[in-house]
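Risk register update: the risk of archive-format incompatibility is retired. Evidence:
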Amino acid sequence: MGAALGRYALKSRMEGDTLKILKWLDEHFEEYILSGLLVVIAAVMMLQVIMRYVFNASLSWAEEASRYAFVWSALVSIGYTIKENSILKVDTLVEALPGSLKNLMITLINFAVALFFGYLFVSSVPAVLRVISTGQRSPALNIHLGWIYSAAIAGFFLAAARAVQKTGQDMRALIRKRGS
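Archived output:
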């Protein structure tokens, strides 16, 4: 009996830890990725400026590394802006609608956004696979371009997932308002 209780307690603690990790990832994943990419861009560009103007010898790979980090940050940031509800949108018409219709319209728009980014995600996979099949490498860093183009898959997946998450939150809010 004691061993069974011990296993249950361990399993319960592991599930609790797993939920904490998933909650942390849900709240901070994009933030840490974007912060890391920003640090990479700033450090590489600062190193390039120092090398060019202090040592009179520029790095051949610095601009390329910064460009690829920027591409990754641009695509990963889409999901972050959806999560934070700060994605660029024109909502003049939606704001003019009465309360319940406004909430329904916001939910439908978020659903459309989820479908759009889901489509982009699905469409990006074969495009990236074609790039991978070419075996092409970047000129300065000699990185397989599949890694660079994979930013589209990652970014559109995060955007679609965050839009689905946002749509679910909106639907729960609609159901709560109708129930009360």
